[in-house]
Every structure is written in C-alpha cells, then in structure tokens.
Amino acid sequence: MARDIINVILPEVESSQSIATETVTNKAVTVANGIQIKEAAKNKNNSLAIVIENTAASESTVTFAAGDTYPNSMLGDLDIPVAASSTIVCQIQDLSRFENRDGSINIDFSTGFTGNIYAVAKRAGVAPVE
Length: 130
Known about the structure:
Layout (H helix, E strand, L loop, with lengths): L3 E4 L4 E2 L6 E2 L5 E2 L6 E4 L10 E6 L5 E5 L13 E5 L3 E6 L3 H4 L6 E5 L5 E6 L10
Parallel strand pairs: 1-5
Antiparallel strand pairs: 2-3, 4-11, 5-10, 6-9, 6-11, 7-8, 7-10
C-alpha cells in the first residue's frame, strides 16, 4: 500500500518564548492509502497530538497500526472509534507500540471514513538556524 504522508507540524516559538504558533494545513484522508506520519518520534516526549476529523454522517474507526519494532509492537493494532461528524485528538502515550524503524507511524481508516488529519508536536532540542 502506498500511504499518503504527512509531516508533524512543529510550531515556532515567538520572540518572548511564551507561545508557539504555526498555520495548520490538514490532509484529506484517502481510505485506500491510509496515512503515514513521517518522523512521528522526532519531537518532545508525549507532545505529539494527532487531530482526526470525521466528516462522515456515521461513526468510523481509526486504526493505529502496530509498529515494526520489538517489544511493544507485540501489543498489536489499536482501533479508536470516531463519532459521526466529530473531531478527536489522539495523544500517543506509548509511541513504541506504533513506531516503525524509520520513526514513522501508520494509521488506517475504516471503509466509509471521510475526513481530514494533521499532527502537531513540540519541538525537541534546539530549533534549526535559518
């Protein structure tokens, strides 16, 4: 399966170091492709928030696929229900369950799902100099 890829949005901290902001561009989900969140593990621990909008008129299921690393991937896939016409936020508490060797995570969607997705996290380490 050729997955659609999204990048984690890392908001920029403003000059007083009080607030970080960034413009969000969501990705329309194509059920047949699923989503890969590229470099999902490259952010501050437990700060990754995945926002999923279900625009369908019925409940759908989102599946966080088990990763390809041992041992927590042995826990398997995790299905999350998403109510009709609603938006949920998923904060990954055990990234090692879903993390692939390349640092990505994969998400699949039930047949009939329509909606959007994006991911936001806090930057880990020093911001790159531009």
